Fold this sequence. Notes:
Residues 1-25 form the signal peptide. By secondary structure, the chain is an alpha+beta fold. It has helices spanning 3-20, 25-33, 63-85, 127-138, 188-194, 222-229, 249-272, 276-297, 310-329, 337-340, 342-355, 362-372; strands spanning 40-43, 46-49, 118-123, 155-162, 172-173, 208-211, 216-219, 239-242, 407-410. It has a five-stranded mixed β-sheet with strand order 5-4-3-6-7, sandwiched between helices.
Amino acid sequence: MSAGKWLLPFLCHAAAALVACPSHAHVLHSARVSARAPVVAVEDGKPAPSRGGVRLLEWIPSQQLLVTSARFAWNTLWKVMLSELAPQSDDGDYVRPAPQMGTGATWPAELPVVSGRYHLYLGNACPWCHRVAASARLRQQLLAKTGPPQPTQFLSFTRLVSDPQRASRGGWVFDSDDPDPLCDAADLKGVYDRCTPGGYSGRCTAPLLVDLETSTIISQESADIIRMLGQVSLNPSGRAVDLYPTALRADIDATCKWVYTQVNNGVYGCGFATTQSAYERAERGVHEGLSRCDELLSSQRFLCGAQITEADVWLLPTAVRFDGIYASFFRCGRRQIRSDYPNIARWMKELLQLTGSDLFDLDAARRSYYTDLFPLNPGGIVPSGPSAADLGFPVGDGPVEDATAFSWRSV
């Protein structure tokens, strides 16, 4: 192996250690003095062998050269990998790519409202998938896989697995216990290819809403899917949950806009920022947004009043991931929901009861973030918590029914 093949990774590793603590000079000095001494650790009172590295300081005379080179190499590789993962502005701000396919926020008039024809592809870790699933669950259009069929169930769904090593493009694949119903694809790219004459060349994202009968993509944009699903219903009672009531539409649209900008996308702006100023802007916006939500919820049950609306559905996925994932992983935990935003905490637990605890697995989502987004966590170590139990999330599979939590419309 040539020196270049191992030196650059080593320098990157050294940079991480050196930058972490400004007092590492004494460590380097000790390493130089005792470079040939055996390196031992203590386990249960007994010495245990450990590796001492390649001892670069024996043949690199300048600590300054080592630190400067390692820091430059690490930072350069990190920025390259992060720009591939998350597009950046010239100022280092994360810029989310726009959706590429969809029919807008209106249910296509040519598609009949029938059960068993329309299918959602959803990933547990993805907050955009979560909000689609939550909206469909609140409207009784998406029920648990283990339950008996219900007359209101408009959609079926597949739970995707996050595994960028197995995926041919993107990060979503299928497991044998929840296979693809359209074409038995190995990953989501296969579904996109099946639905696209000549093959698909864009981003393979979820959520994805597909017409199984015609192998057609209806939409890959979560906001549009949420809105269009509010226009269809199989409820035999003659009424349906309305998450976008006419009288509140202006307020809902305005609330969704700032919740998305400051909170939903803001946490990603913190995690994917490549400059200090970009990070600080995003982090400040996150807590301004959360404070605004907490203030609203101090005097009313939900964000836009006494009933659940789309605005609550937009906030929920970020809120349930915040303390358990985003606060540490995206470096935005200066304040946390469980300790600093009591009204959001109360609201969040009620939304989890109304949507059902089976809709989201926090521990699995944490593993996905910490292992799949490896430019932010190259060591792949996953924190032990906080878990759903630590955060006091409600348990029990099914959603709690409470008609007073909703606005209703005639169908």
